[in-house]
Every structure is written in C-alpha cells, then in structure tokens.
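Reproducibility note. Readers wishing to regenerate the assembly model reported in the main text can use the exact inputs given here. Chain order matters: entities are listed in the order in which they were concatenated for prediction.
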Amino acid sequence: MPHLLRTFRFWIGVILGLAAALLYGWVLQPVRATDTSLVSLRQDYRADYVLMVAEAYGGEGELSLAVQRLAALGPETPSQYVEAAIAYASDQAFAVEDIERLTRLARDLQSIPPTPAASSP
Amino acid sequence: MNRGPWPLLIGLLLGVVGGLTYAWAIDPVEFVGSSPAALHSDVQADYLTLIASAYAATGDLPRAQVRLGLFPGPDAAETLGALAQARLASGRPASEAQALALLAGDLGVRPSPPPGLTPRIATVVPIASPTITRTPSPRPSPTVTLTPGAPFQVDRRELECDATLRVPRIRLLVLDAAGQGVPRIEVLVLWDTGQDHFYTGLKPELGNGYGDFTMSEGVTYTVRLAESGALVTGVETEPCVDESGGVYPGSWWLVFVQPPQP
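Running the prediction on these inputs yields the following structure tokens for the assembly.
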C-alpha cells in the first residue's frame, strides 16, 4: 500500500506540474511574437504588403525588385502571393485601381520565365 | 518507509520540466497572424522602405500614414529620416533613401527650397507666407576654416529667417565644380556633448546636394564635410523676428563648393 501511495503521489505531481507548466508556457508566458518574419503576417497585412509591392512596381517599373520583395513572403512563388492578394482584394471590395495594380503585377509576373531565383525565398 | 512528500515533489518537477519543454520547444504557440509591428527589426526596415516606395509611386499620404500607424513609435518622420540615412550609408539604392526621405519630409515639416533651386514637386499648396524681418541686432559670424587642398570650400553662410521652418536647421548644399549638387556626401555635425552625421541627396526635390540637420537652441555646432577639411564653426541659433514681432530661432544656410580644377 505505501508503494501504491507513493506512485499515486508521484503521478499526481507529474500531472500537476504538467498542467502548471503548460498554463505558464502557453497562456501566462507564451513564446512572444517578436522578431517574426513576413511569412507569419496575417492575411490582410499580407494582402496589403503585396499591394504595396504592386504600387511601388507601378512607380519604379523594376520587376526584379518586385519579385525580390514578394519572395520575402515565403516559399510560394511570387505569382501565387499576388493571386492570393487579388482574391482577398476582390472579397474585401478593394478599390478598383488597387485591384488593377495587382492584376498588372500578376500579368507582368507571368511574362518572366520560371527560374529558381524567382521562386526561392 | 514513508518518504513524505518527495514522490509528489519529484513528480511535480518532472511535470514542470516536461510541460515547459513541450510548450516552449516542441509545440510552441504558433504565430500565423502576426502584425508588422512584430516583425524583426531588419524586416521592419524593409517594410517601412516599401511603404515609402509605394508612397513615392502613388502620392497617397493618408494610406501611407495608416500603414505607418501599424508601427508603434513617437515620431514616424524621425524614424523614416534615420532609416533613410542608414540605408544610404549601407549602400542600398539611392531611390530607397529618397523615397524614405520624401515620406519623412511629407509627414514632418518640409523645408523651403534652397535659394536658387526650383522644387521638383509639381503641386504646391499655396500658403500665406509672412513677411520676414531679419533681426537687426549684431551677431557673431561663424568662423570658417579651410584646409589647404580641400576638395570643397565654404562658399556661403547665411542666417535664414524663415518662419515656415518651424524648427531651426542647419541647411546645406554641396556643389561640384560644375555647380551640380553632389549627393551622398557625409556631413559631420559636432557640438560640446555629442556629434551626429547626415548625408546629402536625401531630399532630391530640394537638390541632389541638399541636406539638413535640426538644431537645438543654445547649442553651438561645428559642421564639417567628412571627406573634406572645410568646416564651419560657431553655428548656433539666432533670433529672427516675424511681422507680428514674434521672435523665433533662425536657421543657417551653408553652401560648400568644389573649386574648379586648375
């Protein structure tokens, strides 16, 4: 019986410790969202980021620079990010000129041949 | 044999260690919906630069302000200005720094164009400019010291009484022998308790060789081009009087010129 009692106490301690640690690590002191990358941007921010790339591209006319900026968003191809942004912009009723900017960028991205440099982050 | 609370404590300890390992390392909270403010500082710099580049292309200041509002900070214009300097110093394309400087200028106080230069901005909002009266009281002139063989020489130094400049500035222009503005010239500003530097060319609408520095009242500055021995000492704010009799601190206008090659 004493052995069973000790085992019981041990596992009660483990369970209590786990519960307290998970509460602390997930709720009270979770890993902080600092020093994140563009990959973790929320969908609306990501769409606005792509729109900014399209706006800047409209003024600068440098497609390579636009590709470089889009590649920072993550592992997908720049075209995929722009298409996702167009879909989001359409859903959220962005201004027509904004959608046109995105569409123009998407069209110009289609004109470049797929290369490893263009699709890598 | 009764071991007291030890089994419980040992279990508790193992549970805490295991739980924290799981919560922080094995399966930490995932951030898939973070905001730009949570980005790494380097990425934030790129993000801010993109905001400025987009603004330079569209001229949509309210939109740029909304985007900048995502980043906490007391003064976005100061942040962008400092970022422009840093990007230029690190060898990034001048267009980036110019876009940042343009947005910084449009968010803050845009200085009036230097004498003799026409702004590139096509649309100018008309403002009522007060009649400026230069302070009649005598003042000490800054001392100019030239190093023999310096690539640039001090050509002009003038007190500017311009009430539209809300804060006093050291405004300077660096010109080559052909009279063209020279960008990317590092300018050192030194005073009793510190020093700073800035680069020309970040406000191209005011001239490629233009740069400015905000002065504090009561501080005496020395201005020197980093690659030149030419310097101006004893630069400090001087009182100016506007048409209503109000006194405000004036700015200094300095021109450095590269002498013609013999």
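We highlight two features of this model. The mean pLDDT of chain B is 77. Chain B has five helices and twelve strands.
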